Amino acid sequence: MATRGVGEGVPPERRYRHRVLSGRPATPKRRPDPPEALAAACGAVQVDAEGRVWRVTRYGRPCTPYRAESPGKAGALVVALCLSGRRLRIPAHRLVYHLLVGPIAPGTKLSWRDGDRSNNRPANIRISASTDSLDVIVGGA
Prior knowledge:
Blueprint: E1 15-16, E2 19-20, H1 35-44, E3 45-47, E4 53-58, E5 61-67, E6 69-71, E7 77-83, E8 86-91, H2 92-100, E9 109-112, E10 125-128, H3 135-138
Antiparallel strand pairs: 1-2, 3-4, 4-5, 6-7, 7-8, 9-10
């Protein structure tokens, strides 16, 4: 009886280099923030004029305000929230823009004018197209 190599006999669309993919559909790399998560955050956090996010409730009860941001994988600050028992990590700049500037349309990308991902002042966050995020590196506006 001949042995088969890894991935042999599997259709090419289900093959990935040396591994065989499961039958599950591939998930996108970054899922958009659900609008209900941003709306739920309005009661749990507050944002000051400098773009700092403060947690004002803990376990559903009012508490002494403390900073809610923590560093994320890509260098941007994130805020952890629980929504219907599911833990979400929302980028802090999206939360600041939503609460201080206005709602964000689905699929909209935001970027920082100065390129500093920890600077979440409302004046520093802007709506950008996919190619505009390179403006800071190239020296554009």
